[in-house]
Structures are given as structure tokens and as C-alpha cells.
Write a structure and sequence with these properties.
alpha/beta; cytoplasm; Rossmann fold
Length: 200
């Protein structure tokens, strides 16, 4: 069983996924990590990006300057669409390969664009980590040290909170502290094990 885990930027997806992995030994596949793999130096996708945006999009060591790219694509929707069309199929292939290697009772696919990219088609259930938008904003500005306007642009590009919740089978509410989030994850884990038992 593959379970999708999503939520807006700054919602606490990583904290939730880490709890599933460290406390319960669940195999976690992170779509953000896969998005880094497909643009490593020497990969064809990186060359396509350079051809489109120029060498200024690279760091001195020849790797992708993700901050510079993010600035470009979130300022121009057409550029973002071009980038997504290039990367989403490659990321999907990486995700599928990794999920096939899972040996835990179920696997977790963590993706900020789970619904928008169609990756939810790979999953049996969807967990949404939900927080008020004001919390998302303040957490991300603090964590990434980026301007509020850039965070708002990223939030606009992601599914709106109501849209995400519409796809949710399970919701983790993360407006409180880490202990509260962990308790919710632990309860969900037990529920998934019970679900698997009834299915077998």
C-alpha cells in the first residue's frame, strides 16, 4: 500500500514523514529529493534548463542554483509550466523505482505537489498536513530566510488549502507542537496496520 503525504509549504510534511520513518520504520520516498536527483550535473534535464535560462542558473560548481531558478519560474507561470512538463515525468520514474524497493508494511510518498502533479494516482490514501495559511507563511519565511512575497507566490502555485483537503483521506493538524503531531502520526500508523490486516 502506498500512502501519499502532502501539504503546503511550511506545513510540516518533513516532520510528519520523519516520524513515520524513525518511530515506525516506514519507507519514505520524498518527491523533493527526487526533483534534486533529476537535475544533477550530467543529467539531461539540467542541460535543458541551462539552454532555456542561461548559465546564470548554475552555481560555480556547475550544479543548479535552485534559488535562482525558483525566482525565475515563480515570476512567470509559462516558465513554471515548461519546467514542470520537463521534470514531472522524470521525477515520477524516480519515485516509482524507489517505491518498488520498499520492504516496510506500507510506503509513504511525500510530495508538496501530490495532487497537482497527478502523483496521487500512485497512492491508495492521501494524508494532508494542514495548518492555517498564516502559520505556513511565518514558518517558511523564518526557515528559508526568503521574502514573504516569494513564499506567497509558491503558495499560489500549490493547491489551495480547501482543494488539498478535498483529496484527503486523513488529516494531520499541525498548528500546535511537535509532540501533538507525533501523537497523530502514531495513531495513523496503527490505523494503517489495521487496514492492512483487514485487506490481507
Amino acid at each position: 500500500m502506498i500512502i501519499g503525504l502532502t501539504g503546503g509549504i511550511g506545513s510540516g510534511k518533513t516532520a510528519a514523514a520523519n516520524r513515520f520513518a524513525t518511530a515506525h520504520g516506514i519507507h519514505v520516498v520524498d518527491a523533493d529529493e527526487k526533483s534534486r536527483v533529476v537535475v544533477q550535473p550530467g543529467k539531461p534535464a539540467l542541460q535543458h534548463i541551462v539552454d532555456r535560462f542561461g548559465d546564470a542558473i548554475l552555481l560555480e560548481d556547475g550544479s543548479l542554483n535552485r534559488a535562482a531558478l525558483r525566482e525565475q519560474v515563480f515570476a512567470a507561470p509559462a516558465e513554471r509550466q515548461w519546467l514542470e512538463q520537463l521534470l514531472h515525468p522524470l521525477i515520477r520514474d524516480e519515485i516509482i523505482t524507489d517505491l518498488k524497493s520498499a520492504s516496510s508494511p506500507y510506503a509513504l510518498l511525500v510530495s508538496p505537489l501530490l495532487v497537482e502533479s497527478g502523483q496521487n494516482a500512485l497512492t491508495k490514501r492521501v494524508i494532508v498536513v494542514d495548518v492555517p495559511e498564516a502559520v505556513q507563511l511565518s514558518r517558511t519565511v523564518q526557515r528559508d530566510a526568503v521574502p514573504e512575497a516569494q513564499v506567497r507566490a509558491i503558495m499560489q502555485a500549490q493547491a489551495q488549502r480547501e482543494e488539498r483537503l478535498r483529496h484527503a483521506h486523513d488529516v494531520l493538524t499541525n498548528g500546535s507542537d511537535l509532540a501533538a503531531l507525533h501523537a497523530q502520526v502514531d495513531a495513523l500508523h496503527q490505523r494503517y496496520l489495521q487496514l492492512l490486516e483487514t485487506q490481507s
